[in-house]
Amino acid sequence: MLDREKPGTKTFTEATPLLQKAAPIVSAQECQQHIQLLRCFLGLKQTVSKTKGLFKTEYVHKNKNELDQIARQSAAEESRWSIYVSRAVHRFSVWWTRLSVASTPGPSLPHSGWTWTGDQMPPLDVLMVLHALTLNTKAFGEDCFRHQKMALWNAGFPLQLASQYIDPESLRYSCPEPCRLQFENMTKLAWDNVNDPETLPIECFRCQKQTAVPWTTRRGKGLADDGFIQVCRWCNFVLRKDALLAQKLRRDLHLLLETNIPLPGTCWSVDDGLAPNETTDEFLKQSLVDLFLEETRPTNLFPNITQIIQASTEAVGSQSLPLLHDIFKHYLYVECSSCNLYTAVMRVSKSASTLQSAHCLDFDLRSSQVESLYTKSLRDQRQGSSRRSVPRTDITDSFSLFWSTHLLSPRSYCDFFRHLGNSVPVDWDLPHEPETCSLCQTLCPPSFARRFIRGLTSLSEWKEWLSTV
Predict the structure, then answer these.
(1) pLDDT digits (tens, 9 = 90+) for 257-294
(2) Fewest CB atoms less than 10 Å from the CB: which of 61, 324, 357, 454?
């Protein structure tokens, strides 16, 4: 069992607003503050997207002759925002790693004595990533649990504090000077996303030396591009996405072995809420750690996460496929989080875009009607329940706004969910669809044709690497 702060899922003696009938689950003021914050994010997106020349996106990685002027402009705007979000995710990861949330439990706050203060507020882009992560309750809980930041999980998203820094007329986010100084001193990054360098030092998977990798290139081979590929300046190792994923898995394996920090996907227990699944941890250590360490060795010229998944399937058999699925779904993206932060931010920004034409809600959020509908919907979220009962991620819908605002208080939301008799809470993440899940397809036993094609691919990669040496 890990020696760390425990979430408040087992304790119901402490009075919380959600369990006091005199107080609403979520207030109308909080919903309005949430709308204001989302519109602030929307304003950031519009500003970044329309700033010409930003991140060298005018080329948009396509032949200009293939696109008309309007299409080129639209593609450039999408590219700017995509690169900006990728940079924001990295900045969030640095901030998250260095954020200290040490707390001293007391009689009034048995689970956390830490609270947000004004000088701890991060830049708007980092706040945007934190907001998207908090909406993914299970991933946020796992990240806080694994990185010993349960005080942050208890405190929740600083919605009220953020609203104080947003001008209600211009919807601009402006923090006092102590915020900027603390962020820059802590992270060694600029307060403004666009003022950070155009390259990022990446540790080579093979030689462990750092190579400066551009965020984007004219050929679409940068870190924020879909076709990311770079060559290490020291050993000529070809850095691809799979190498970064294998490196992430290897680091997490060492954390499991050396400090007993569980892998992502193994912290939610049906009976205990947020807790390490010791059975899963022991299974990994006994059956798969040696295999994983071998497959992710630094001398491996072409680490392939798909091959690692298939090899682990063959090693443990089909009975462990659900366990492998829960683990490997966190190794399809590079972010050091239990959540695909890039996709999470994009989903929220897309939903926030609908607010531009929405000026009112369908019905009064202060009425008891929305609370009763909300409680009924969450009560229906049990194993085997209809997928149609899952709340929609449409912010303009009053019910969804109420639900997403409650998600910003993770401890309150999880306690409320368990109070209704449910174990693992539903959150902002998309429902799993096995028929379209690439991981589910990978876990299936590969046919001879797939093995043959994979061999040809490996051969071409080997020849390509030889040509660069």
Answers:
(1) 999 898 998 887 655 667 777 788 888 888 899 999 99
(2) 357
Residue in the structure block whose two tokens are 């368990």: 418
Task: Name the token pair of 129.
Answer: 């990533």
Other CB atoms within a 10 A radius of the CB of residue 405 amount to 26
Q: Using a cut of 0.90, tell me whether the model's pTM lies above it.
A: no
Instruction: Give percent of the chain with pLDDT exceeding 90.
Output: 39
For position 266, what pLDDT does the model report? 85
What is the three-class DSSP state of 394? coil
Q: What is the pLDDT of residue 428?
A: 83
More confident residue, 427 or 9: 427
